[in-house]
Amino acid sequence: YAHLLAAIQPHAAGVRKLVLFLPDTRTQTAGLLEGLGFAVERYAYVLRKAPAETIEVTWPAGVELEALGRDDLVGAGHFADCINDSFARLAGHAPLAGNDLRTWFDDEGYLEGGILLLKQDGRPIGTLMVMRESEDPGTAEIAALGVVAARQGGGLGRRLLRYGVDWAARRGFHSIVLSVNAENESALRLYLAEGFIRIETMVCYACRLEREHVPGSAGDSARPG
To answer: Rounded to the nearest 10 degrees, what angle do helices 185-193 and 156-169 cross at?
Structure first.
């Protein structure tokens, strides 16, 4: 691990810290990482709902979902703005730019029509992404589920979640997975109430790099969970 860390650093220009996620059961590896200067930054839970079920979702008047295409630059900008508003107070969130979404369309798990923007009376207010899970082609992953702060608490997040489950079930996926920050207690309560079960705890370890390697900065991930 020391050799791997040393090999990474010359390529980390502009990066202030490295982060990685490790299952909490990997205690021996955790000890090695801590010996190299990594420290626990936060926790996240992986949840699963199986089997996926079709759920008829109704929306309030004026509210609709719009699937984004690869070349919809305006929609991508609105998506990024909503994500940044929804996740601004969560640990590990790195500001998202509209251009970042273009890489999501190239992800091997991308599903046509699976990147969605929630609108009310034409104004963007929320986001949802459903993709194929990387380790199990029969499982779908829900990510980037968020509602802007001004519209939270009105049941739109629950409807988005149910829509994502239904969307995946109608396409033949047998189960759904998602991840949530441990400190996001309201989201965790929602997922558990909707039948998701916690299957794994992931520990986020962070390591600050030496100043001479880090003229800029970077966040944890371009894709919020």
So the answer is: 50
